[in-house]
Specification:
The structure holds two protein chains of two kinds. Chain A is mainly α. In chain A, about 70% of the residues lie in helices and about 5% in strands. Chain A has 19 helices and six strands. By secondary structure, chain B is of the alpha/beta class. Chain B folds into two domains: about 220 residues, P-loop containing nucleotide triphosphate hydrolases (Rossmann fold, 3-Layer(aba) Sandwich), CATH 3.40.50; about 60 residues, Alpha-Beta Plaits (2-Layer Sandwich). In chain B, the strands form three sheets. A six-stranded mixed sheet of chain B has the order 6-7-8-3-9-10, sandwiched between helices. Chain B is elongated, with a radius of gyration of 24 Å. Classes of the chains: A mainly alpha, B alpha/beta. At the A-B interface, helix 1, helix 8 and helix 9 of A face helix 2 of B.
Amino acid sequence: MVNFTKLNVVFRREYLERVRSRWFLIGTLLGPAFFFAIAILPALISLRQRPSTDLANVIVIDATGAGLGGRVSDALLKAFPQSPPPRVKVVSAGQLAGTEDSAVAAVVAHEAKGYLVLDTATLAGHSVRYAGRNATSINDVQAVMSSVKEQVLAKRLENEGLDAARVRRLTDAKLETRTEKIGDKGREKGSGVGNLVFGYIVAFLLYMMIALYGQNILRGVMEEKTTRVAEVVVSSVSTDTLLAGKVFGVGLVAVTQVLAWVGLSGAMMFYLGPILMERMGPGAGAAAGAAAAASRGLPMDSITGALPTPGASLMILGYFVLGFIFYAALFAAVGAMVSSQEDVQQASMPVMLMLISSVIFMQPVLLNPGSALSRTMSLIPFTAPIIMPLRMSLIAVPWYELTASLGGVALACIAAIWVSARIYRVGLLMYGKRPSFAELARWVRYAG
Amino acid sequence: MPDLAIDIRNVAKRYAEHVAVRNLSLAVPRGSVYGLLGPNGAGKTTTIRMILNIIVPDSGSISLFGQSHLSNGATDRIGYLPEERGLYKKMQVRRVLKFLAELKGVEGKEAERRVEYWLERFELKTPEKDWGASKIDELSRGMQQKVQFIGTLLHDPDLVILDEPFSGLDPINAQALKDTIVDLKTRGKTVIFSTHLMDNAERLCDSVCIIAHGDKVLDGDVAEVKAAHGSRVVALSVASESRARIAPVLADRALVARADDQNRYYEVELAPGADAQVLLHRVVESGAAIERFELVQPSLHQIFLERVGATGVEEGMSGHG
């Protein structure tokens, strides 16, 4: 039985005590700075670094006997004008092994970033080898390889009798890539990458808020229990009302914090964006908007275009509310179960595992939001609150899947509240060792 | 039917391993100070929690001032001080108190006014220092106890339930609590407190109920209870050289249920059905030089011993219950 006057009293205390606390203020102020640091700084750094990249600082070992090395060298220098120029070593097939050894020594001595081996197989269009310190960086290798490919193609065209100048003109095609998403209603504003970033931010924010504030509830319940204030409180208000007030109060703290973050970030973007734009050049303005997008040089409207429709926003809010209630109820039950800080880690493990499992699957879902795995994860009630909003911002999810998923989460929510309220009622005034599963089951049975 | 603050009828509470309260009926007259006595594990705290609707009884009914304790706002008339005390450590004293008052249905502004009154009354707010603005964990233990009392009384409850209120109190706060109990009674409030300290109960209570192992052993007006047990105990003292003469008399189980050698005198409990006059006669017959023969009113402690047994008392003394 929930008494609404008392619910309001509990709710106000839970909300105000948290919002008034120093940690909330610090978290709220530092949040955007933190996001800025982890998300936008790398983008800015990569922007700053791009002109000074030294990708052409390689040794080109040319065993083709057709002068391909020289052409590749020229092309690399043209692509990376500020880099130290490549050194070309024209060798015969027999000298290859020895030259490679000395190239390795040069890379080790930091005289070059790596070396490129061009041989007859390269000319035949089969293979090319690159070895170097940055060989694991896909972007670096791709950048080098695109120059190599271009020259191999040009050389092969010339070998077929085309005029060198014409070949150069034909192969010099710098394509600027613009992507556009197509949904059920046809063309949509914004690019796929923008959606990716937005979906990732939303899913991560959902996870973070549920994890942080779920555990916050756990600590709050445990505090009431260990300080023994719980008994006074439950003599005035039913445990159901207390639990509900707690979940709503803390939930609203989370919402308040997110809104404050959005507001602050918006203000930062508004005031700092133009400054960044000026200092970094036009490409960097987007950096203030969203980091990953900025690093790919996306224009601003791809971000705004990724913002969800009002309907989708409502759905995301729905997932947050239900997901939060689900996990908050479970965390509250864990808080009522334990009597000491040492027990918390172990007792909260099952709940944490459920929550973390949604994060583990974020990457595969990002890469392939339509796969069977993604569909399954967005239907399982304890991963759905995070995975479904992620999928929704990537692709158009059919309505029946949305209904099933949201319905499942709602049912799971009711089940979690039912079980947790019982554990909470009994556990809050039980001290001593942590209950076993058999004892927990008994609590749930007896609490009726 | 007398005006009852609490009327408990046939209440029982069983747990998986044990029976906390077997079949308890209690009647607490309105305006009285009522002692709930019993050893550790007797079921006192369980009974109190059932009155407060923290625990739901398996069977039986509980009425507060003639209404079911489940009826709307019924438990708001109770002020409760649990045995294990504690408050929100990081919260400001004023806000904790206001919160507790509002939980009992006192409206915000009125709650604030009362908080100020009580802070001043308990000297937590003086012209030099206002502890109301401090956080709970900045207060000394004694001051925290005061705050907890205030929290119990802020909503001007008609019924105050104190579970082992004297345990852990410093002498000054113990005195303040005693004064408060007396003050509440003069204002027509009902006070129930549980204790295993019979001295406190004997001094403060109008009525008592002794429970042990989840059962009621006895209850009633303290004076009546004592009178009912009065004629059963004799203080007997003889000249030391004639102590041996009365030994056979005291060993007669038909006459003497228990003879407790107090060094300077024997505390003799008569066997059921035995007459004090017969005992006197036998002692005179034995030729012992009698120095004292007195029918005494037993203390609650003795009544407790008699009715609950030594084992119960040992348990009771080993902890709080």
